[in-house]
Amino acid sequence: MPQGMSVVTDATFAEAVLASELPVVVDFWADWCPPCRAIEPSLAELAEEFAGRLVIAKIDSDVNPISSRSYAVMSLPTLLVFRDGEVVARIVGSRPKAALRKAFEAQTTIPV
Predict the structure, then answer these.
(1) What is the active site of this protein (predicted)?
(2) Model pTM greater than 0.90?
(3) Which of 44, 88, 92, 95 could cysteine-pair with 99, CB 3.0–4.6 Å?
(4) Catalytic residues
């Protein structure tokens, strides 16, 4: 697992994601998904860049179907951004690193 990223499961989802004080980006992925593998290096770099402001977590949808069903994940990769236990943003499909950075920045700045 890339440094700065965490792994969540159906069993740890509530504690690791919903109860987090920081916003959490959850990457729903699967082994067989080429676009999932394509964005992993970008997510790893962004995890280090946003350390202390945002958590990036991965969950294998095949191994953890309950969370995938709970949040209506129908396509992979799907990135869900959680803040205070609620989904505040959804990114479906592979995106360039710059687009992911912009989406994450929007979640780490508090509106005045």
Answers:
(1) 33, 36
(2) yes
(3) 95
(4) 33, 36
